[in-house]
Amino acid sequence: MLTYATALNIFASVSGTRFIGINSRTQVPLTGGKKNPHMGRVIKVTTGSNVMVFAQAERSAYSAQVKRRMEAEGLDPTSWDSKPLPFGEWVDDTVFITHTKKGDTEPTFYLRVHFVHPGKSEYLLDGNPIAKADIIGMPERNEGTQGGQTEKVIPRNYKLANITEIRVDGATHTF
Predict the structure, then answer these.
(1) What's the pTM?
(2) Which end of the chain has fewer CB atoms within 10 angstroms, the N or the C?
(3) Running DSSP on this structure, what letter comes out for residue 129?
């Protein structure tokens, strides 16, 4: 399992923007509560994602990317402002976010990325492949409107414990 200390070491040399590859394995949050027969049994395995990470000094890069895309599509970039993180806080001078859930005593660490290419995802029910359309209670993802542009900038927070591989600077780190 990827720990914060290991991740900090891997990304110690990141300054500015860096393109990296990520594989992940995550429990899929489903709707329907205890009545949902798939609850707690569906895993999403994603391989080959290509993402960008931004060091602290480059955090405004998200806003700049959105505004460039708006401008390219003939929209007014001054009509949009980025919002604060949906949860957690930036860890100083890093590409990480920390969040302590209510009732938890230890923080959970996340890697903040912007998608370039989402990779290939496979869903598993009790370890066996299942089509996404066959998963009971799979919520629809809402990417929001950003500035109204077609080509959205897609930020994501990867829980470090869910990352199974990182490819950066010619090295592959498997967890």
Answers:
(1) 0.87
(2) N
(3) E
